[in-house]
Structure formats: structure tokens, C-alpha cells
Fold this protein.
Amino acid sequence: MRVQPLGVVLRIMGRKRRGRTAKKAGFWKRSSGWLFKLALVGLVVFAGLVIYLDAVVQEKFSGKRWAVPAKVFARPLELYAGQRLTKDDFLTELGALGYRNSESARVPGLVAVSGNRVDVHTRGFQFPEGVEPAQKVSVRFEGPQISAFSGAGDLVMARLEPLLIGGIYPAHNEDRVLIQLDQAPPYLVESLVAVEDREFFNHFGVSPKGILRAAYVNFTAGSVVQGGSTLTQQLVKNFYLTSDRSLIRKGTEAIMAVLLELHYPKEEILEAYLNEVFLGQDGQRAVHGFGLASQYYFAQPLRELQLHQVALLVGMVKGPSFYNPRRHPERSKARRDLVIQMMAEQGMISESIAQQAQARDLDVAARGRLADTNYPAFMDLIKRQLRDEYREEDLTSEGLRIFTSLDPLLQRKAERAVEGTLKRLGPAPGDVEMESAMVVTSAQTGEVLALVGGRNPQFSGFNRALDATRPIGSLIKPAIYLTALEQPQKYSLITPIDDSPITLDAEPGRTWTPQNYDRESHGLVPLHQALSRSYNQATVRLGMELGVPQVLKTVERMGVQHGWRPYPSMLLGSGAMTPLQVTDMYQTLANGGFNTPLRAIRSVLATDGEPLGRYPFAVQQRFDSATIYLMQEAMSRTMTEGTGRSAYNQISPTIRLAGKTGTTNDLRDSWFAGFSEDLLAVSWLGRDDNGQTRLTGATGALQVWAAFMREAHPVGLSPAPPESIQMAWIDVVTGLGSDPSCPDSVQVPFRTGYAPLPGPGCRPIINTEAVKEGASRVMDVIRDWLP
Amino acid sequence: MMTLRTGLLASSVLVLVGCAGSGGTVPVVDSSRAISNESLNAGAGMTPGQEQQSAPAESGVVVMIPDDAGGSRAIQSYPLDVQPSLQQRPSQDPQRSTATPSGGDSGSLQADEQLDGPVLALLTVARDQENRGDLTNASASLERAMRIAPREPQVLYRLAQVRLAQGDAAQAEQLAQRGLSYAGGRSTLQAGLWNLIAQARESQGNSAGAAEARQKARVTL
């Protein structure tokens, strides 16, 4: 089909040439035969070249034209009444998506703010499971949540489009966001034609008139203002040819331009041009096409660009580096204004509109904002999983769309918590820089929401969240207490545990005498207190009673396959894990005893929208929900009265949280793992050389964690017990059943059927020991005051 | 599809007769009827106003079963603890504001256990997708609902149903178990979840476990 026009052209050209050759042969009778043969050979060679070039032109143009790297998206922000979202966070997200402020949100991409109300016209998006239409919605905020949501008719919820957070590129690569011609904003095609190729809609691929005009314009302007190449020639040059500037290449370019015009309509050539043109360099990534350039320079979809922005991009075609608006704003503005001027001169816009546009700022999006596609730690996690499941070339060239669970707002808060806290804490001993990592997941669904791989989150180096394997210290303890509480006939939250000195045979010939952090023993303590105060001697004694292999099995059931050997020292966390593994382990505690594989990818779509991979939510119950409830109770006491209580210096005490500190030998690693109803976060502080930090879990990692939680507005853990839990009043001193009317009685949850019977009445006598102890403490304080 | 529908119909009739021996009821708070072609285009988040008009005067659970005509009709309804949020969606005024503050102190329930606007809308979308045989997207919509209301056992119930239809009985059982852990005090829902577990165990060849689950369903009702 497509070959036919070429055949016609060749026949026409051939006839012309033959006619002319015959005439000339009359003049040169003697050499006629020779010349004719030479011309014929030339013709055949030329025809062969044309046929070859034609094949090249068609082959590349009709197939898949570009290798498009996979695009990775963050979670879309959901809007509905009751959603936990502050107005500031909402505006941050809108800013990152390139929404612009306006009086009223008339068209997609506009937002109008008045007081606590934000009107936004969403852009719409093709999600894996359906289309989200572009629509105007109104959102009201009250504190950390959306208090009212409304839209057209019965609308109860809407989604913003997801933020593009990165792509999967080979080492050196072209990147582009493919657009269709009808997605071009007003003036783009007009100004492009006006500046680059005025005769585009009239010529047949090359334009002698254009060349002449360019020569004239350049001559009168005294510099090269216009190029003589047509858009078609430019497309051919970029699309098919190398960039050497020989005459032969110029000739080939012209032939191919003509061939391209023969086969394809102007619109298709123009669309290809809009997608092909080189518009900047972003590190190792080459920015091609107006679609990506619009995102790269303005953080906005192309179709929303206004005249002054369009003119800027069109002006950059001539020299993307030379006119880079970020590096050379003045030069870039001069070029932009010239483009606008040319449009006015050619009557596309009025002089007053031109002046208005020229008065505008460049409006280029700042880099390093949320919009910047820079989430190296999270992208690393995504890529590792994808590379297990897809071929590299599919990832880098097939235009896959990958939807992830990253929450850019929480990511930003996690990064700030890490950076801010490390700055406040200062360097480790010896002026060594401290490092950090953080993982944040959705407590209920196991989705990874934020990931910080080091003190500088923009640096894509060693990803500590995934690769720093460190002893976990006391973070192991919940596994021990969980093993105990699974035996309700033997252990409850108030079972007395002996926190007195203990010596064990660690390895043959060596004994081990674990110490408490405060170097003191505390005698008999209730089980919950042994955990919340992180007493080592009580914990080791309990762990030995349960059996180390039993405890290590519990760790596996919690979700981490560790391969640890059952040494007693494992009971104090000499086994090592990565922050991500710790997250996996604590996920089961945060999630009511259900193990959920951590997930970061929600779905993978082919370029045509066909789903390639889905990563459905899956759970497996590993622990009884009543046992987990008791664990959460004990771990929430860590926060209110134990090692984690300084968190409430930063967080409202009305929010029920649960967690555990972890510190390793000689203060090398500082850990904290804790959760609310909706968020689980694990933070680690330490040194890459594994040296000392002078920090405990409480003075280091907990501070990062609390700084994050303060900003994340978590939902408190539900205090509502499951059905197999009963509450009972007990005497705090004796642990026996009591009555709410008695002094010193507290309500404690038990597994149904294992609560102590109601006591005989209130304890008649005052506990003299406790009074004595209190009195001597008072005396100590008074003694300190005396000189 | 037809056999599934017939099975649902048959088992639902059994429930009506008073024998809870077979699963398949759909304790989803939803008062919708056959979704028209226009409403198919409404997209997620849009609850067709028409639905509300078919709602019974007293809000409650209406168990829907698909009928042969492709629509669905109510076969069972009972009062339910999600009433507060439904009351804010009166049935007569289609132009009303559907904003439902969920932090309110309505009853003793956790805020996220109330089925309000978005979750209800997503369950409707999911059922629609399921009826069209699009289980993958039905699952995606239900997971979206789960992110909004992770402790809502009705969402987990629906997700378990979809998993069962997708042929993943093991996961269906686990999801139903998880639903149970959040369904304290909601006996009808518990019975439905146990019945679902029974079905899931049956298809995994565990008939003793299935019988045990059925027994539990009977006790909870």
C-alpha cells in the first residue's frame, strides 16, 4: 500500500531524467553511449538508495517509534469526608502535581483556596481499575482531617492523579512522556511553526523558500536566528541520523524528509516531532518531547501550559542547554520574548497579549521539591522487585506504568524527621557522621509508605533500610513475651518475673551474665513491666524458661526467616536484621497477629492499559488476636511508663501508641520500632563503620520516630478488646483479684477464662515496705539539697 | 456465572428458611438495585441517586442477590450498627450533600467501622465489577475500600468472597478470619463470615473444618 506512491514518484523522476538525458545525447553524439550508461548507473544507484531509505523511513516510523522507560507512580491521594489530611499537606501535594492557584477552579489543574476550604478541579486519570474523571470538587478541612467533601451531584469521593516519582532507565537514556497532537496546548503548534518552519503546512519536506528566508533573517539580524531546516528535516535528523554535519548526511536528510512527507500526513509528522525533539538534559536522562519537558520544567501536564510557557519551550528547541531556563534565566527569557514577538508579528496574537505574556515570570518549577523525581531508596526497593519479575529491556523500553504505595507526604515527613534529628543530635564520637534509616508502612495493609536509606535521602548510595544488617538488641523482646503470652495458663500481663542477676552457660566453657541497662536488678516485676522497662535479666530468665528455639520460632512466625543459632544471647538481640526485616516482624504485631508480606507495588500496566501484574493483599493469621491485644497493651506501656515515654514529649498523649526501643552492645545501634492504628515505623541510627554512637534506642532512634509521628498525625490504637479478652480489677501490689472501689486497684486485660477471681475485698493493711522505700527516697532527695 | 448465581440464590433461600448451613449470603450494607447503564459511567465515588430510592424506609442491611435479569433484589434485611452514617444519606433528596463526618460520637463503634460514603460507594463499584465478571478490578476496588476502612469486616467479607470466586480459597479463608477478628458483637456478620470459611474449607478439601465452621455459624446466629 504505502510503497505505491513511491513507485509513482520514481517513475516520474525517471521519466524526467530520461527525457533530459536523451536531449543532451543529441549534442554529444560521440560520447552519447558512454554518458547515457553513466547516467543510467547513477540513476540505478540513486533509485536503490531511495528504495533503501524509504524502507528505513517506513520501518521505524510505522512500528513502535520510541523506547519509553517504565514510569513509576506514587499512591493517588484519596479525598473524602473523614480522610486524615491537613490542608497544608493537601496544598503540598497539589503543588507537587503542578496545580496552580486561581480565583475559582474553573478548569483542570486549578485550585482556589479560601480559609479552610479548598476547591480544586482535578485532572482525571486512567487508573488500573477504572477512569477517574476530571471534575471540580470542594474540600473543607478541620484540624488534621477533611471535614466535608462535595462535588457534582452525589459525589462522595475523588482521587487526584498520582505523582510521577521516577522511571526505570538504562545507564544513558532518552526519556519522554508521549502525547497526542490533540493534547497540545493552544499556540504550541502555531508558535513552533512560526519559529522553526513557517512553510511547514505547504512544503513537501524541504523548503527552498524557508532556506532563503532564514538566510535573509539571519543576515539582517546579524546572527543565526532561524534555521533553514524544515520540521520534517529536523525530525528525520533526530529520528534516523547521527549528528555529524556532512553534506552527504544533509542530502540523505532531505531525501528522507521528502519520503516521510509522501507516506504520512502532516499531523502525524508534527506529532512525532513534538515527541521526539530534544529539550534538555537531566543528569544522565535526556529530556525528549514537549510532554516530558512540560513536566520537567513546569511540573504540569502539557495541555495546561499558557502562552508564555509554551513560548519558552518552543524557544528552547534551538538550543536546550544554551537556553536552559534554570541555568540561564535571562538568556532564556530573552529568547522566549522573541518567540512571543514573532507570534505577534505574524498576527497569531495581539500586541497586548504579547506584552502581557512577556511580562510574566518564567514560572519554572523549583527543583528539589516534592515534584522532583527523586526517591532513590524507595525506587531501589521497587526496582529490585521488578527486576526479579521483568526483563530489563521491558522495563526500560516498553512504557510500563507501575503503581506503588509510596506516600510522598509521609516520605517528606520521614526525611525531615531523619535530617532534623541527626542535625540536633550531632555527630557520633570522634566526629564521625551518624547514619540512619527509616521504614514506614501502613499498619493494616503492609504497604510501604515511605523509605529513607540514609542521612541524605536524595543520595542514591548504600540503602541502609534494605541492606544494613545490624543486631536488633531489645527489639527481639516482644518475640519472647509473645511466646509467653501464647500460653495463657502460665503467663498473663501480671505474672511475676524475676529480675535478679542470672548467669548462663553461653557456649562451652564460657558463661554469660547479662546486665540491666541501669546496672541494677529489680526483683519480682510484673511481666508487662519487664517488657516496658526492657529489663534484661527478667527477659533472659523468661526466655530460658520458654526455650531459645521456641522464641526463635516465634520470630519466624512473625515473618522473618533469620537462620539464627539458638544461643542464649539471641534473647537480648545479638541476631541481626535489616530495618526492612524488623518492619516485617513488627507488622505482625501491628496487624492483629496477621502476617502480611510487605508490598510496595500495587500493579503493573502495559502501555495499552493491559494489566501485567497485580500484587493483591494477602494475609495469614499467625497469632491469636487476643494474644496480640495483650502484647499491644504491654507495648503501649513502653510508651506511657517505660523506655519509650519521651515520645510523648513530641506527640499528644491522647494518641495510643505501642513500641519498643532497641540498643546494642557499646551503644553501636539505636533502634525504635513502633506503631499506631494506621502507621508502623521503624527507625535505626548507627555508624557505617559500626562504631559507637553514645545513643540508646530511646535517645536516638526514638527521637527520629517521635519527630516523624508528630507530623504524621497517626490514629491512636484502638483500645477496644477483641471478644476473647476480659477486663479484671486487680491489686497492683499483690496481683490478686480486687474491686474497682479498692485503692491501688487497676483494670488489666486477660485472656477470657484466665483472669484472677475477684478478691476477698480491699487489702486491709498498708504495704509498709513500699512506704519505707518511698520515705527513704524522699530522704535521699533532701540529703542532696544539704551542703 | 450462571451456576454461581444459582448457587447464591439457592443458599440464600436456605438462609431464609432458617437453615444457615450453607454460605453465600452477602451481608453488605448496600441498598442498591440494578445499576443502570448511565450509572456504570458514573465511576468510583459516584453513588447513583436512584439507589437511595429503592432503600427501605428503615436503614439496615439489605442482602442483595443478582437475579436472572441481571439486576438484583433484596432478600433479607436486618437492622445494623452502621445506621448512623446511612441516616446522613436521606433517600429523597438526590442533590444532598453526602459529606459524612466520621469522627462523630455516634454509638460505641470505632469511626472506621461505620460504613460511610466512600466505602459504600466502593463496595457498590466492586459489586458492579464482580457482576460483569471483572474479578481483578473488583478486588482492586475492595482493596481501595480496605485502605479507607481497614477494620471494616464487611469489606473483608466482600474481599474474601471475591478471592473465593478467583479460586484462591486459602486466602478467602484467611480474609474471612481477619474479618471475624474485627466483627465482635455483630452476630449476623459473624455467621456470614463463618459460612464463607466453611465454603473456603470445603473447596480446599477440608470437610471436617467446613463442618466445624458451619457449626460456629449456627451458634453465632
Remarks:
- The CA atoms of residues 421 and 703 of chain A lie 7 Å apart.
- Confidence is low (pLDDT under 50) at residues 1-22, 368-372 of chain A.
